[in-house]
Amino acid sequence: MRSLIDILELSVEEIDELIATAEDIIANPAKYQEVCRHKKLATLFFEPSTRTRMSFEAAMYELGGNVISMASASSSSASKGESVADTAKVISCYADIIAMRHPKEGAPLVASMNASIPVINAGDGGHNHPTQTLADLLTIWRKKGKFDGLTIGFCGDLKFGRTVHSLIAAMARYTGIRFILISPDELKLPSYIKKDILEKQGIEYLQTTDLESVMPELDILYMTRVQQERFFNEEDYLRLRDSYILTPEKLENAKKDLCILHPLPRVNEISVGVDADPRACYFEQVLNGKYMRMALILKLLEVKA
Amino acid sequence: MNIDSIKNGIVIDHITAGRGMKLYRLLKLDALDCPVAIIQNVQSKKMGRKDIIKVDGAIELQMDIIGYVDPNATVDIIRDSVLVEKKSIDLPEKLQDVIFCKNPRCITTTEQELPHIFKLTDQEKGIYRCIYCETKK
Question: Which ipTM was obtained for this model?
Answer without folding.
Answer: 0.86
